[in-house]
Structure formats: structure tokens, C-alpha cells
């Protein structure tokens, strides 16, 4: 199984995985509006892989099979001040 990964033109660190290059027919229109013009990031073989860097491999495969796409959102921002205060015991 291969997938094609696109980077969002509107949202930093947001990626859309689809089954075929330039085929967004199964992606909801509202999602595409918010995503912006997709920018090709890479073609990626999923078979034989044990993991992906920033996404759960099984969730990606299931989403591609069931709904035709997988949306990878950026991780939540770190609250360094909160971490520092908790480390200092001042929370």
C-alpha cells in the first residue's frame, strides 16, 4: 500500500494523506477549504513499515481504507512556563 502526503498551504505542520496522487475525491470539501492548496510532500510506501514518525501507522492505513484520507494535525504547543513552574514546585 502506498500513500501520497501533502502539506497544507494554510496550516503549519498539517498533512493530508491520500491513496492516489492528486485524488482528493474522498476528502470532504470543507476540509479541503481549510487545508488550502495541497503541496506535494512525498510518496510513501506503507507496506513493510513498522511505524511512522508523527502518525500511528495502523490509524493511517485504516483511515485510508475506510474514508480515503488521513489528516495529520500538529502536536499541541508545549507550555514551557508551566513545565518550569511545575519543576520548581510553584504551580
Q: Can you tell me about this structure?
A:
The protein is of the alpha+beta class. The protein has one domain: YcgL domain (NE1680-like fold, Roll). Strands 3-1-2-4 form a 4-stranded antiparallel beta sheet, covered by helices on one side. A hairpin with a 7-residue loop joins β1 and β2. It is globular and about 50 Å long. The mean pLDDT is 90. Pfam families: YcgL. InterPro entries: YcgL-like_sf, YcgL_dom. This is YcgL domain-containing protein Ent638_2370. It comes from Enterobacter sp. (strain 638).
Short summary:
By secondary structure, this protein is of the alpha+beta class. The protein has helices at residues 29-35, 57-67, 80-88; strands at residues 2-7, 15-18, 39-45, 69-72. The protein has a single domain (2-88), classed as NE1680-like fold (Roll).
Could you name the key traits of this structure?
91 residues, alpha+beta, NE1680-like fold, 3 helices, 30% helix, 23% strand, globular
Amino acid at each position: 500500500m502506498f500513500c501520497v502526503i501533502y502539506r497544507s498551504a494554510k496550516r503549519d505542520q498539517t498533512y493530508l494523506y491520500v491513496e492516489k496522487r492528486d485524488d482528493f475525491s474522498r476528502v470532504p470539501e470543507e476540509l479541503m477549504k481549510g487545508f488550502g492548496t495541497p503541496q506535494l510532500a512525498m510518496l510513501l510506501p506503507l507496506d513493510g513499515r513498522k511505524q511512522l514518525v508523527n502518525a500511528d501507522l495502523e490509524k493511517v492505513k485504516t483511515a485510508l481504507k475506510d474514508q480515503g484520507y488521513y489528516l495529520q494535525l500538529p502536536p499541541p504547543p508545549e507550555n514551557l512556563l508551566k513545565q518550569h513552574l511545575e519543576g520548581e514546585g510553584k504551580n
